[in-house]
Known about the structure:
Blueprint: E1 10-21, E2 24-35, E3 39-43, H1 50-57, E4 65-70, E5 73-74, H2 80-87, E6 90-93, H3 105-116, H4 121-134, H5 150-161, E7 168-172, H6 180-197, E8 200-205, H7 208-214, E9 217-222, E10 227-232, H8 234-240, H9 244-250
Parallel strand pairs: 3-8, 3-9, 6-7, 7-8
Antiparallel strand pairs: 1-2, 1-4, 4-5, 9-10
Amino acid sequence: MVTLNEDKNTVIRVKDLSVGYQDSVILHDISFEVPKGEVFVIMGGSGCGKTTLLKTIIGLIAPVKGKVFFGKNDFWGIGPEEQIGIMRTFGVLYQGAALWSSLTIEENVALPLQMFTNLSSQQIKEVVSLKLALVGLSGFEDFYPEQISGGMRKRAGIARAIALDPKILFLDEPTAGLDPLNARMLDDLVRQLTDVLRVTVIMVTHDLESIFAVGDEVIFLDAETKTMIASGNPKELLRNCKDSRVINFLTPRRS
């Protein structure tokens, strides 16, 4: 089984990547590195290809060209078994949380443990209890997804994503659809998880407050040129970047 190289400071390296569907290229010539233990944000306006890039990194969409390295392993250049080995080190929160509506919150979080571990029922129950406590959902084990708020469903989705103690946590628009208070609570949770679990987070978002609250490093995708036009710390980009498209995106709107 392929495992990530824990001795390296770079967890993911994307090199000359172009992504898209069939004959349509959505992004081209994307290159960046994700430092270990940080919150790395893929940002940009609607339609710039953020989620498509994320799906290519996590193995759901093959690239048009280019490479995605996890440690020394070129994900799209190795066999299916090796790819699965790498994907087992991921946790993923999809848009909308993607919880099973017919399962309780406890059952949703327990599912990956039942599928991919040999833990006993009691051990699984204990792990689930711990993960729900980490996301502030103790006491909601027997609730169904439709019985809790949108923010709580996102947190339950994160609990499921961290059930197997992933090395890398991918979050696709985690604050989308949430009111400002719940969005900021989710930002706090993301930062807490990086500190407590030492997990590397790759987050797709266009939420400006989230970007400044949790982003250590960011890349900016531009829909017009279909490529990456800036990278760095978001606060430093706002101060120093010369590209008006990046500045306009990062500048808070006054109501």
